[in-house]
Specification:
Blueprint: E1 7-11, H1 16-27, E2 34-39, E3 47-50, E4 53-56, E5 58-59, E6 70-73, H2 77-89, E7 93-96, E8 125-127, H3 131-147, E9 149-158, H4 165-179, H5 211-224, E10 230-237, E11 244-252, H6 258-267, E12 271-273, H7 285-288, E13 294-301, E14 308-315, H8 319-335
Parallel strand pairs: 1-2, 1-6, 2-5, 6-7, 7-8, 9-10, 12-13
Antiparallel strand pairs: 3-4, 9-11, 11-14, 13-14
Helix pairs in contact: 1-8, 3-5, 3-8
The chain binds adenosine-2'-5'-diphosphate (A2P).
Amino acid sequence: MSEKKLVVAVVGATGAVGREMLKTLESRNFPATEVVPFASARSAGTKVPYGDSELVVRELKEDVFEGIDIAIFSAGGSTSEKYAPHAAAAGCIVVDNSSAWRMDERCPLVVPEVNPEALEGHNGIIANPNCSTIQMVVALKPLHDAAGIRRVVVSTYQAVSGSGQKGISELETQVRQMFNLKEPEVNVYPHRIAFNCIPHIDVFLENDYTKEEMKMVHETVKIMRDPNVKVTATCVRVPVFYGHSESVNIETERKLSAKEARAILAQAPGVQVYDNPSEKMYPLAVDAAGEDATYVGRIREDDTIPNGLNMWIVADNIRKGAALNAVQIAEELVRRDLLGVKDRTVFIKK
Ligand code: A2P
């Protein structure tokens, strides 16, 4: 019996997330008959690892999407804005990791454990949420279903890999420079990141929040499909290579004890409860790095309000926060038989 053709492209295949996407497709045995890596003209002809072999990187152009079924993009917002409509017009479904399409009402914003049904009736471009949002909603959705979350106060501790390869290199270089008693060079972040915390991710907006913080606010509401969930966020870059951590305080309509919350989360898809403080067991970025799960610990009642809980949520930002979530969306498209783009004009008519 001949295998059904399923061609998958990874756009931004030479980047930190793109490489992880290739690894994830391979390790999860994604049923692709062919995987095609794309990057900028700079990388055309170079090779990227895929399983035991290597794939030759092709240059991304507007006309490359014919014959490709799914293109997973992680090459920055401007690349997605420019190329994703061409992909959809060629009948190729885009799963986009940038922020370019997330709040566009034509595009579902999907975390497969939370709102996979949003994929039905897609128009060809599907958005992968922000890394900090993904891990938070994976943990909060089951608590919302059980007790109705009304308010979320989140502070993030975000790894440098969230800025791509250049963020990883910046921290490495600065640490090396400082151990050699040299003045660290600051290129990527607004200040030194080595041995420091920077409460500034993405640009500042008119309301004095950063764009990263407002992504968490708006994306959470869109994914949970509940405008009654109010979110306020402070996003902080920390000198950690892989794994975002989050301190999350929630206020619920119905009282949830810490024990109940632990029991709900223990059953939740994609979540692992790791919560035994007396044994020094709580989620750590270094343990979450390289893993698929979203870890939740330090679950405790907030007795300053009637129905409050505090928790600590950690996940690998490159995996669940980016590559894994995107590949899970692609898997869900296959499972639900949603391949193909019904109306190829949605993003090009304007
Ligand atoms: P390249 O390596 O050719 O620059 P990271 O987030 O780790 O910095 O990775 C960004 C990814 O996006 C890289 O694979 C990069 O390719 C790719 N990329 C950046 N700009 C473009 C572009 N204009 N067209 C295609 N790919 C791009």
